[in-house]
């Protein structure tokens, strides 16, 4: 009897140790919240991605497409683009709505002074806000403290729709949709370096974590241009099964996630071989990818389906999507504990 009790005790200890080791081997979830723009409803949503609950809905102008969050997680900035697509007739937005994420309401509106169709905003290491100003063929430089426009950097091309910044904050790169080009900007001198021809039409843009490669997407052929940022020239192409609309590299620089809106697919590209190694189904008309800090989860906004797809980047398996409403587009992340 005593032997049996001892054996049961040892077995229980071993099982307990097994479960502790198993738990220890699994990275903890990255605490934080998603900020999601719904361009059809003219709202910004604050979403808990783990419980998949909408925590707040804030009405913004017509229409916000993209959002960026301040480094301290206090404010979200939503450029108000207008009610039309790129290059199409419609209203010309001239403002940026500023949302207090603690009070969960609009706290200010930045007036850019004229109709510009501002679209994508990015914070530089200098703390300034850089926002594409399509109708001025420029990127506006905004002081987020005073809400004043400090400068306008020319892009040398119309329809400068999306923007990425180099990690050191010295360069900016815009995807110029209709002209099918990428503009290289000197952010320190606030000047145009040059414009790189890419294709007949391009959409969206991304940059590798080391800042050495910029990616933009040919809309007439299934390929992604790879631009060498040391020469500002295309040095390679990534061939795809279907044209890509957007992309995002993983923080480790190993993979490039590329969205095909036409095929409703997410292609996973090995950035060493520049070959597609996986293809996954995503919601209808998916438009943007956000990889949360830690690089373990990717969120993909399905504008047409009204869903945010959730991809585990360790197992490459799709998790339960976040069910919202059609029109979800731009994504940003707030680090911290959900409330």
Pick out its properties.
4-stranded antiparallel sheet, single chain, globular, 1 helix, mainly beta, 339 residues
In short:
With 339 residues, the protein is mainly beta. The chain has one helix spanning 2-24; strands at 32-38, 43-48, 53-59, 68-69, 75-80, 95-100, 105-111, 118-123, 129-133, 138-143, 148-154, 160-165, 171-176, 181-186, 191-197, 202-207, 213-218, 223-228, 233-239, 246-249, 255-260, 265-270, 275-281, 286-291, 297-302, 307-312, 317-323, 328-335.
- Report, as a whole number of angstroms, the end-to-end distance: 52 Å
What proportion strand?
Answer: over 45%
User: CATH superfamily assignment of the domain at 61-197?
Assistant: YVTN repeat-like/Quinoprotein amine dehydrogenase
**CATH level 3 topology of the domain at 61-197:** Methylamine Dehydrogenase, Chain H
**What is the arithmetic mean of pLDDT?**
91
Low-confidence stretches: 1-28
- Order of helix and strand elements from N to C terminus: HEEEEEEEEEEEEEEEEEEEEEEEEEEEE
Largest sheet features = 4 strands, antiparallel
* Lateral strand order in the biggest sheet: 3-2-1-28
| SSE-based structural type | mainly beta
